[in-house]
Amino acid sequence: MKLVRHGDRGCERPGLIDDEGVIRDLSSVVPDINGETLAPAQLAKLRELSPQDLPQIRGGTRLGPPVSAIGKIICVGLNYHDHAEESKMAVPAEPVLFAKAVSAINGPNDAVVLPKGAAKSDWEVELVAVIGRRASNVAAYEALDYVAGFCVGNDVSERAFQLEGTGQWLKGKSFDTSAPIGPWLVTRDEIPDPHDLSIWLEVDKVRYQDSHTSLMIFGVDEIISFISRFMSLQPGDLVFTGTPPGVGMGQNPPIWLQPAAIMHCGIAGLGEQHQRVVAWRETV
Question: ∠ CA 106-41-108 to the nearest 5 degrees?
Answer without folding.
Answer: 15
